[in-house]
């Protein structure tokens, strides 16, 4: 299924190593490794510059080919993809990205590195945000088997979450807006995982809801909307 896809190794600043990049280069593997802003580079035979001195600002992107990285290692042959997202609704990221890569252009490097944040979300969903995989303490083949099972379940819940979102009823499952927050609050996986939990909760307190509606006739419209939302969520499972 995946043989036509390219494999690109992505790493944040904790894992960025020039020696690792050099080894990946020797293995003819593609990579995007984020550098710390106080690292030094050298362009051709010019002087060494700290990444902070390149003039990167919100809305600016740079792509520099064939550079040497760090004064200590002085390993050459890498490209530097740098970008700082412009302000959106008056808010800009606190700092830009400096990405050491062997990809050939800026857009491919940035698009590839962006996928790391989806992977981070997946890790959270596998662990404390969903399946609590770290609490199992299994190893070796049992861990691989567990990951395979979770992968199937994770994919199924994500598809269900996307279906619930398309129906426009995700707000019944989780609060989708938060003051001062630009990014989405809940992933499709979260909506898919807790969608059925919400429906099951409604079934368990149905009698209580009916009594409340008798006391608050003016809320009947919202009750009917919630009932319709529940039917739509159930249709996604």
Task: Give a structural overview.
- With 237 residues, the chain is an alpha+beta fold.
- Helix content is 42%, strand content 16%.
- It is built from 6 helices and 7 strands; from the N terminus they run βαββββββααααα.
- It has helices spanning 18-26, 106-126, 140-166, 188-204, 206-215, 220-235, and strands at 8-11, 30-34, 40-43, 48-50, 61-69, 75-83, 97-101.
- The chain has a 7-stranded mixed β-sheet, with helices on one face.
- The protein is elongated, with a radius of gyration of 24 Å.
- The mean pLDDT is 83.
Task: Provide key terms for this protein.
alpha+beta, seven-stranded mixed sheet, 42% helix
State the distance separating the first and last CA atoms.
26 Å
Helix content: 40-55%
Mean pLDDT: 83
Largest sheet: 7 strands, mixed
List the total number of helices.
Answer: 6
Shape: elongated
Radius of gyration: 24 Å
| Number of β-strand runs | 7
Class inferred from helices and paired strands:
alpha+beta
Strand content: 15-25%
SSE ordering? EHEEEEEEHHHHH
Furnish the topology, listing elements before pairings.
Elements: E1 8-11, H1 18-26, E2 30-34, E3 40-43, E4 48-50, E5 61-69, E6 75-83, E7 97-101, H2 106-126, H3 140-166, H4 188-204, H5 206-215, H6 220-235
Parallel strand pairs: 1-2
Antiparallel strand pairs: 2-7, 3-4, 3-5, 5-6, 6-7
């Amino acid at each position: 299924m995946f043989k036509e896809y390219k494999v690109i190794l992505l790493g944040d600043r904790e894992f960025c190593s020039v020696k690792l990049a050099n080894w990946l280069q020797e293995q003819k593997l593609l990579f995007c490794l984020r550098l710390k802003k106080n690292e030094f580079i050298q362009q051709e035979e010019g002087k060494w510059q700290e990444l902070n001195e390149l003039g990167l600002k919100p809305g600016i992107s740079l792509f520099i080919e064939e550079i040497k990285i760090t004064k200590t290692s002085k390993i050459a042959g890498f490209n530097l993809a740098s970008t700082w997202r412009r302000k959106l609704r008056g808010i800009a990221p606190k700092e830009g990205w400096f990405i050491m890569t062997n990809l050939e252009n800026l857009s491919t490097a940035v698009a590839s590195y962006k996928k790391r944040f989806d992977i981070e979300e997946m890790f959270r969903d596998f662990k404390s945000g969903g399946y609590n995989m770290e609490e199992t303490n299994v190893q070796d083949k049992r861990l691989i088997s567990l990951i395979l099972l979770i992968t199937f379940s994770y994919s199924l819940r994500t598809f269900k979450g996307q279906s619930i979102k398309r129906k426009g009823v995700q707000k019944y499952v989780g609060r989708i807006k938060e003051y001062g927050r630009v990014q989405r609050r809940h992933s499709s996986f979260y909506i898919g995982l807790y969608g059925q939990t919400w429906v099951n909760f409604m079934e368990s307190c149905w009698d209580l809801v009916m009594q409340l509606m008798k006391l608050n006739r003016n809320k009947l419209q919202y009750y009917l909307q919630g009932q319709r939302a529940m039917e739509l969520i159930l249709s996604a499972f």
